What does this fold into?
Amino acid sequence: MATETFYDVMRRQGITRRSFTKFCSLTAAALGLPPAYAAEIQNAMETKPRIPVLWMHGLECTCCSESFIRSGHPLAKDVILSMISLDYDDTLMAAAGHQAEAIVQETIQKYDGNFILAVEGNPPLNQEGMSCIIGGRPFLEQLKEAADHCKAIISWGSCASWGCVQAARPNPTQATPVHKVPGLADKPIIKVPGCPPIAEVMTAVIAYILTFERFPELDLQGRPKMFYSQRIHDKCYRRPHFDAGQFVEHFDDEGARKGYCLYKVGCKGPTTYNACSTVRWNGGLSFPIQAGHPCIGCSEDGFWDKGSFYNRLVDVNGFGIEANADKIGVTAAGAVGIATAAHAAASAVRRARQKAGDEPAKAHDFEGQN
Amino acid sequence: MASTPVDDTPQGEPLVYVYEAPVRLWHWVNATAITLLFVTGYLIGSPPPSLNGEPSAHYLFGWIRFIHFSCGQIMAVGIIFRFYWSFVGNYFSREIIRPPVLSRKFWKGVMLETKSYALAEHSSRRYVGHNPLAILSMHVLFVWVAVFMVVTGLALYGEGEGPGWIHTVFTGPVLLLFGNNSLTVHTWHHFGMWAMVIFVLVHIYAAVREDILSREAIITSMISGWRKARKVTPID
It folds into this structure.
């Protein structure tokens, strides 16, 4: 195997050393590392052989790839793709058909136990995986085979991490997130949820793995802490309006024009862990809340099954009709209220009859329970 | 274990010191906290109408949330204290916290009281503290709901606070239990609120009803601590 480093590849692609150095410092900053690490990243890029990556696509919409190739990072579209030695990505590669599938086998043989498996989308388990066929066989098989030989797995996006829309109720194909696929080789998995994840988050995660040859620190759910340890709400620029009690009541009201908090129109920012309010999208241009739309919580597990995007109270199924916790609560409390009133009336009637002598009032039994 | 009757009324019915001062204090602090928690909690779910003007001039939602968090933490400390008091307090102090669920006599009492409340039978038994049905309903509908609300509440509080011990102890594990989704925890916290409302309705109704029907000062006993007892019947 050729010992071509990331730096060699970049130079070959016509990227200047100045641009390369800038990329390293920006990556260090994006990862939240001290400035000294820029040199470390640079050193790693100059000396380490490129790690091959197989980028597989299951049931998905390719929004992760679309996001990834639009990394607003100055060099991302030129560099990151070369940097990771993307050996196989059926939506981006020039090869097709048998030629493309042969690359998977080649990588597996050549870099057994040393390549990164990036998964976009997830496999459906029903009908023996027939709902997603890649190169003539179920994606489930391709995924399992690659997982057997890889070093680690990156679960790109909400599909691979949680299941996303194809796993929403009733999930007819039984689409299953990567870490829940039965029989999958026990390899370290990093989840980078979002629909899609932020481009800079994706490139930063890859850069970290390449630089330090390990995953960044993960939270309990397997997401990199550096991007997923805070909620959208915690860094939202509309937060002062939330604390003040200034809300958008309707999308066409005065509050909406003034940029008030979108909580009352269903913003899921307070329950969503992602970096949108800090990193933002399209090169830091904007993010949904800045554009006046509530966060829909796309990086959260099961966000399709949590009721309307425009309501804070989750719909609860299983009651025949759509209901939320407040409707159910008021109904239950009302029923109990009526029951106590009825019980009070019945008690009063009984007592009145006792007093009138219709019923003999029994002497209180003081014998205890025996 | 039952307290010794201390005082005799003119009718020869002894007065018993049922609720010690810390228990009474806990009860009323809780009652206040829960009322405030309900009002502020409901408003957090369904906020009041939007305010106008500069955001720096207002802190309405901040105050609502501050009151909610403060009362929740008071309730949490209260529960820890009350659990401790069930070990050092008098016989009645452990009734609702650690009920004798392994005692057959207790469950027989629950059955008898249920029949009595269903008006199928005249209430025939006297308990100085709570009757077995009251103990069971308070243990399940109050104690466990309160613990659930404190745990889920601290988990949600930890989300805002960010990494720290509350996040480590409550937020992380609770989120895992609720399918990794904070919104689901919110929904269950909401259900818990309504369970508490139902408890409050039943609790107040039962206390008022007993106060009238049994000719015993049930309600004032939570203020003075003393209750008239015709005969002390231990529940286990």
Observations:
- Chain B has a mean pLDDT of 85.
- The helical segments of chain B are 21-45, 60-88, 104-117, 132-161, 165-177, 182-213, 218-224.
